[in-house]
Design a protein that fits this description.
Elements lengths: L7 H5 L9 E4 L6 E5 L5 E8 L5 E8 L5 H16 L4 H9 L4 H13 L13 H19 L9 H12 L5 E2 L7 E2 L3 H20 L25 H16 L4 H13 L3 H6 L5 E2 L4 E4 L7 E4 L2 H8 L23 H12 L6 H14 L4 H8 L10 H4 L1 H40 L1
Antiparallel strand pairs: 1-2, 2-3, 3-4, 5-6, 7-8, 8-9
Amino acid sequence: MPTAKVTKRAVDALELPAEKQTILWDTEIKGFGVRVLPSGLKTFIIQYRNIEGIKRRLNLGRYGVLTIEQARNQAKIKLGAVARGEDPAKEVYEARRDMNVAEMCNWYLVEARAGRILGRKNLPIKASSLDKDESRIKTHIKPLLGKRIVRHLTPSDIEQMQSDVKEGKTAKPRGPGRGGRATGGPSAASGCVGTIQAIIGHAKHKGLLAKHPTEGAKKLAGRKKTRRLSVIEIEMMGKAMAYAERNGENPVALGALRALLLTGYRREEGQAMQRAWVSTAGGYVAFPDTKGGAQIRAIGPAAVRVIESQPEIVGNPHTFPSELGSGAFTAVSACLQRVCKLARIEGVTPHTLRHTFGSVAGDLGFSELTIRAMLGHASQNVTQDYIHIDEALKLAVRRTSDEIERLLALGAARLETLQIRHMKEHECLAA
């Protein structure tokens, strides 16, 4: 970590870290520093060892709320108390025992985004997961439970929150740049229970709570999503996509939608895919991070053709690039709904496309184990090198994507036939 006298100029000049955090330690007051997060948040801190030799780190306040001089004075006072055998952090920990839900949620987001709270497989929680947590916290959890003292909560309080979210009591318009409304419902309600229970569990693990006060709260059982597109519906999708393409639909959106149909990838995986990850010769995509961690996933020639047809934007590494900046196109769900409306198909989500890919593979006679490997599901029988050593899996993916491509093409051909018929009818009328 860098060292220098903590001054306004030095703090303003701190570069944002690519990940985790950077701390500038003061050269005049030992243990005093300023922490900067990738988000740009800068916080004054002190670090010391208490009388038991335990390392403690204590936040003094945000840069901008505290001036440099105010922070230095606080650091001198707190570190002076340490020299007298006191433990300033202990007071903070004691105070946190009476945190309300809003305060504990704020603590969780700061700590988790800094990488100091571990999730699955003892790894820092993914930014995408934290974004979902933050959305649930702002939209549902804080409005319903924000002022409640955490240690006084009961399982029934959590279940009541779940019921309120399910019934739409926290429904409201989404934030700037996002369409529609946050309506609640069973899925959102269940997600909120998972988030708040995890937050309380992390707080207990960190010593902020003596016990988990809401352990045992019952979570709504989720309904397994089994919707798939039938053969006729895939053809109707092909017809609708061809019509949409001819009538001004975003070609990148249609490309991303077609790729999801031809690969069975998760929406987030397909949208975030980068060209450098795709090996056309090897027939795979090397994802550095998925729901199941880093994975190598097979991809068929039909999907590769879609990828190769996409526009390349200088400075944008994504297979399906956003029109602005260097980010990925992220509105495939909206395109899917427009296409489904044209096709007069209801109840379709990006997950439906994933389930359709697996179902078509099943129709072609492939085993459940093979289908799980095709879809990137974790399994003790499927290794990360599976695609490299099993050509049969590549063949399964290719045959499945070829079949879906064939059905889409049949639908598009029907549109062509219909348009030719209309042209001939107009010619006859003109004559």
